[in-house]
Amino acid sequence: MRLKNLPKNFTMMVTHLEVNHMNLEIMTTHQNAIQKDFVNSRSRGLAPIPLQTQTMSNDAKWLGFSAFVLGLALGAYLTLHLHYMSYDAVSRVAHAFFVLWSRDPHLGAIGFVWTPLSSILSLPIVVFYPLWPQLVREGIAGIPVSALFSGIGTYYLTKLLIRFNIPQPWRTGMVLIYMLNPMILLYSANGMTDGMLAACVIATYYGVFTYLQVGSLKALTSAAFWLVVGLGVRYEAIPFGIMVALGVAISQIIGRESWSVIRGTGILLLAPLTAGGALWLYFNWLIMKNPFYFLDGTYSNIAQTKLSGYEQYIRTHEMSHPINSLLYISHFTLFFWPLILGIAMGIFLLGRRGSDTFVPVVLGGLIGPLLLDFTLLLKGNLAPWDRYFIYYIPTGFVLVCYIAAKMAHIFPRLIKRPFLGWGLITLLLLSGSFGTYYALQTSQLGSPDGAIVRMALENKSMTSITPGSLALIRFMNHHPHMIVLTDDFTTGVPVVIQVNNPRQFIITSDYDYKSILLNPRGRASAFLVPQPTGAAGHLVDINRYYPTMWYGKVSWVHLIRQFNNVDGTSYRLYGIDSTAP
């Protein structure tokens, strides 16, 4: 019976397979036609890379891994050998420490002034604090995080140059020049978030370029992901993302895309960033009872700059005038001077017939953070620090490499003389990195990182623990059972995380901090009071609630000891009497 039915069933199976094969061919032809139309009508940048070039991503992996290892090695050298410690970087590690090892451990102790991703990523390392306290005390836990982002940035830069069709020997040389740029190298090794933002900038550019080139929604989603990661480390990601999205829209208008595609692209690119921002506002409201606490709270960047002398510095140099602000910001292009040439050539490409579609994206990504810095400078809320302009370097690298590749695409004869064409571009990028070093050595541009780079090259110690801090740490270690209320905004790094028993401190992130501050009897042994001068003195709750305590004019406290030069500030330790509230 089965033998009789076999030919009929077999014929039906073959017929079914033939129909499926024909349908597959029709679908493939249709998809290829769509892809061809997309590339022809939408991407006026570089042509899609050949398939064999896409298999060269191993280069990106190895270079990214090398950047990660280099960041770890340099971080170990700077921290363990030269005793370099970036205060802001250690502060972020301290927030992770407070989540796990403070007197009142909870996730809300992560802090709500800076976006918390760098502290969150440090948590798995801070777990091992009891085994090696230097992970926290010297900020070592932050080094693998910044080194990881350095590897990510290098990985995506390599993939981007592959997309640009830059030949292998020159591509590797360009990536190495980026890795060894003094600012990029320093911020791959110090645990700071500025280098992390640079990595997110490059990763976003890669995703957007790939989307504009071949229409990959996966690449566009990747760009959206890195935008929200950027928000997790720096607020500059918000104007950067908005202006990149505007650049993409302009590119699509140039490519004569439909409005529905333009609208959908913008939604997909900005939706995660918008959701991330909304969550940050929600958590500020939920925990700090103010959705804009990060912006106008007691310890916000605006509050700090108003009380730290930065506003006076800006007024002295008349930077609050728009023209002077623009000149000040433009000076930092010397961090990577080829950026100026790249901007000029980018504008030239936009003026040609058949305008370019990637240049608007990069220019938008450059303008976004600049607008934020310009606004803060006008309001007197921007510290004169070089690291705020580090994004000039990754943007400059991407723009110069892209324009060089585009010129090779427009003028194929340049490819026949690679040593003349790509060699000059490599030298141009190298001169930009040398320019970064020399700019750091100037007093106007190199604050504070110029001295750090110089001392590292000279193998000089950079210990930053002051004598007053050491005296206070020794005192607390000799009195491990004394419960002291302090404001960790000023004492978190120089004192709290340095003592043997950090849980003897009542700090601002503790749930009962405000209650003990107002009713300390039987709950705290002493208050550590900073001198009411500068940001440290004016911002802390102790001086705001008890403005005369420093002067000994609160009846229910007595002076135990004064400590001078604790990270530049004097402190008085006041014991709590039995008459206290």
Automatic annotation (TrEMBL):
Transmembrane residue ranges: 62-87, 107-132, 139-158, 170-189, 196-217, 237-255, 267-287, 328-350, 357-377, 389-407, 419-440
**Sorted UniProt keywords:** Membrane, Transmembrane, Transmembrane helix
Where does the source fall among the domains of life? Bacteria
Presence of the UniProt keyword Transmembrane in the record: yes
State the protein's name.
Glycosyltransferase RgtA/B/C/D-like domain-containing protein
The record lists the organism as Sulfobacillus benefaciens
